[in-house]
Amino acid sequence: MNTSTSPLPSVDEKPTYVREMFSDTARRYDLMNRLMTVGQDQRWRRMVIEACNLPPNGRLLDVATGTADIALEAIKQHPDITVFGSDFTREMMLVGQMKDTDERIPFIEADAMQLPFPADSFDAACSGFLMRNVTDIAATFAEQKRVVKAGGRVVCLEITRPATPVWRDLFHLYFHKFVPRVTAWFSSNKSAYDYLPASTLAFPRPPELKAIMKAVGISNIRYRTLMLGTIAIHVGEA
Ligand SMILES: C[S@@+](CC[C@H](N)C(=O)[O-])C[C@H]1O[C@@H](n2cnc3c(N)ncnc32)[C@H](O)[C@@H]1O
To answer: Global pTM?
Structure first.
């Protein structure tokens, strides 16, 4: 039991906490996303797939696929590819399965830190809004590097904190006033209201995330920030 006043669960509690939170919000997740990002989230997912640089008939792994918006975007951009979606919350993937009307995506229930695929299985791996939720960011990137063929892309989309003071203050207001209210409309899990801002504050800034990717052997890493520095897309090579 986490007895501290922090809205973040302890490392031991985090996987169960995260799974329960996403299981609870699965059916409202897409709408919540559109509202919280003022409709920008699908544009970022398009950029993630572009950054994956997939070859014809390529194989992509969408780690923590959730309701499969990134995986579905991949099929839209590259109808010839095979995209696997993995996640440890079944309820999120069930929503994704309903949207995958052509049954193009194999959904795999798996922890992002222990992917059930042999080495060099994919041409690229990507994740959207996963890394804040894991207990070991380095291990999660290491798994993606392992399953991607040498030279293939590893792409990460995540929320980040802006560096500019004015935007930092606005971001603080947005995250501590607006986001908890939106979450409150959609979630019966009271502590989830504070988890999103708290997990974002605790998350490494873009240069630190780049260093973590480099430390596990991912190379040629670059990143760009979007939405006034509140979103970052990191791209590297396995
Ligand atoms: C914010 S949602 C993002 C879903 C999707 N990628 C998107 O772009 O909307 C985060 C997802 O990460 C999953 N997740 C968190 N930690 C995980 C872990 N250790 N292993 C697998 N999935 C995890 C959750 O179950 C949830 O579906």
So the answer is: 0.93
